[in-house]
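Hi all, long-time lurker, first post. I run a small reading group and we've been trying to get comfortable going from sequence to structure in the token notation. Rather than ask abstract questions, I figured I'd post a concrete chain and ask someone more experienced to write out its structure so we can walk through it together at our next meeting. Sequence below, copied exactly:
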Amino acid sequence: MIDSTRDIQKLSREMDIPLNATIELLTECNLRCIHCYIPNHSEKGLEDYQLFSLFRELREMHTLYLNLTGGEIFLKKNIMGLLEEARNMGFSVSLLSNATQIDERIIRRLAELRISSFGTTLFSLDSSIHDAITRVSGSLEKALLNIALLKEYNIKVEIKTPIMRQNLLHYGRIEHFCDENGFLFNPTPTITSKNDGDNSVKKSCVDDEQMDAIADMILRRTSETAEKILKTDKEDKSLCPNTKNSVFIDAYGDVFPCINFRYKIGDVFSADLKNIWLGLERRYLLSLDKNMLTHCRSCNLQQECYPCPGLALLEDGSMFACSSSARKMAEAEHRNKKKGG
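-- Answer (accepted) --
Happy to help. Here is the structure in token form:
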């Protein structure tokens, strides 16, 4: 009997089903966040007919969870038509948006469509900090107004908070705000390089001392479900377990295992999605295992570390390299464990 998210994830991996699909609708955005990993904010994304075709292919492949991201997805023309089509096809649809381009009319329709969740980002509840990071005045005020409306219409809200030097002292208020309102709170100290390999955004990353101060909070906020999935991933010997049941299509039509793993396995203009899923590039990734991470064998951080080949490829030049982002978090957890005796 299947009775948990972990069971569904496990079964989809065994059956080679792309359970989770993420589509980047566009890269256009009305904000210019200082840490953003997208190097170009001008791509309008795939045409509607191409997206509808992708939806149909994913349904035929038994995809259940459809995540739509950007850029800012509510800058996409006919976004509501896309959402209606996705829901009519039976997808569980989750959205990632900065929450500044919606209003009560749109939110009411999202509630009617029974959107699974609405993820957005808060950097601080102090507008001088939040708006300095987004580089758009008034962005916090708009986001908070619409977050309140999402709650009023009983739409599940997840607040994501990248913790950087600029807002290090502000995550506590956001945590309290989320707990008070029943929102999921997803803080992370990981700031990734831009998709083109530009590391300049990482100057916002917290240092080791600051990482130590927030490591326990990050781990404490990890949900029980997420912990179970992470445990499953730890037990799985694949180089990247997500390769078995997730797929990401960017605004240019290129296909990757996930949003963080920028190893191209095909593009939707050259082949249909099923052939890409079953193709040689993905099969190559499936053949890789963690034993190929030779640097991990003698590492004293194995218990704390969740290496990400995608981040290693992007930031450290090879999917087989030591992921500097994963190592930084693991080192902080290891130091905190030693302090605790």
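A couple of things your group might point at:
The radius of gyration is 20 Å.
The mean pLDDT is 91.
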